[in-house]
Amino acid sequence: YDEQQNLKPAWKYVTDVVRYWISEFHLDGIRFDAAKQMDNYDILRELDNVAHSVRTSQPFYTAAEYVPEEPSILKTNGGPVDACWSSSFHGVLINNLTDLSKLELDLMKYVISAPDLVNYLSCHDNERFLFLLGKQGNAFDDNAFIRMRLAMIILITSVGIPFIAQGDEFGEAREWGDKDQNKKKFPMQWDLLNNERNRSLVDTCKKLLLLRKQREDMKEKTANFIYEHHDNRVLVYARSQELVIITHFSNEEKKDYEINNFPQNGKWIDWLSNEEYQIDNNTLKANLKPFDGKILVLQK
Q: Cys bridge to 119: 160, 190, 215, 250, which one at CB 3.0-4.6 A?
């Protein structure tokens, strides 16, 4: 604190920077890095107040990187920011899609249901998710893409805020490496879209984002886990009484697999494939492909 000027010079400088970026470039959100290294949250609270004061007529979102995620930093818990960066989501998903000797159901349920966390598959702090599927899980080509599709389904249908690193949506898989990362250039590989499986992944992402945008139940901060089977590597969760997500973490196909405890009987349709299913006695019977993911919507 500068007593002669009656201000905190560092605070003034940082708040001026935030004001400039938001007013000049019309940002609708800002991410604060390395919050764990801060002595207290006072400056974060001030920056959040400043950011929202600049964008009074439009929504604004603040997020803080805190590794591992810290719930106390969230406004819902009395903290200074709207959301917290979640490194756990990436770690739990890559572990359960590459190590088929285990299924961490409790951790999966945590990352799927935790609200106000920014979830991601890839970011600047780790290699591309598709690259890691090959490196850690020896999964390549179609085997890798079906796992990537399942990961995208979970990312977009989880309760938290989905973050997609540019390129993940169409299957970027180049290794970034540990040396001179900041000096490397990685132009977008648009020619990947000449491949059918890359285009298919993009189409899946488009449908998932449309689901997230159109359905009100995707805005709710709840996920109800209605079925799980550790040995069969199946986890099913409902975002509402009319929207159910089925995840299958196995490379083995399952024929006429029964999933009970469905919220409602009637005709359901897969949002991604348009396949129709009839639910009777609150039980679904369906074929599960390797690393399958289904998003079933009740038809009225």
A: 160
- Going by DSSP bridges, is the β-strand pair 117-120/29-32 parallel, antiparallel, or unpaired? unpaired
- Which residue segments constitute the domains of the chain, with CATH numbers given? 9-219 (3.20.20.80), 224-298 (2.60.40.1180)
Are the beta carbons of 211 and 269 closer than 8 angstroms?
no
| Residue that has been written with the tokens 């598709």 in this structure | 130
Query: How would you label 34-53 residue by residue, b for 16+ Cβ within 10 Å and e otherwise?
Result: ebeeeeebebbebbbebbee
The stretch 261-285 carries a mean pLDDT of 97
Q: Where are the beta strands (DSSP E) in 66-165?
A: 83-85, 117-120, 161-163
The position carrying tokens 């470039």 is 25
State how far the Cα of 158 lies from the Cα of 154, in Å rounded to an integer.
Answer: 6
Residues 6+ away with beta carbon under 8 Å from 183: none
Is this prediction's pTM over 0.90? yes
Rounded CA separation 129/194 (Å): 21
- Tens-place pLDDT, residues 170-212: 999 999 888 777 778 889 999 999 999 999 999 999 999 999 9
Residue burial 147-171, b: 16+ Cβ < 10 Å; e: rest: bbbbbbbbbbbbbbbbbbeebbbbb
DSSP per position, 171-184: T------SSSGGG-
Q: Shortest CA distance to 133 belongs to which of 142, 125, 124? A: 142
**Residues composing the chain:** 300
- Rounded to whole angstroms, the Cα distance separating 155 from 212 reads 11
CB 44 within 8 A of CB 35: yes
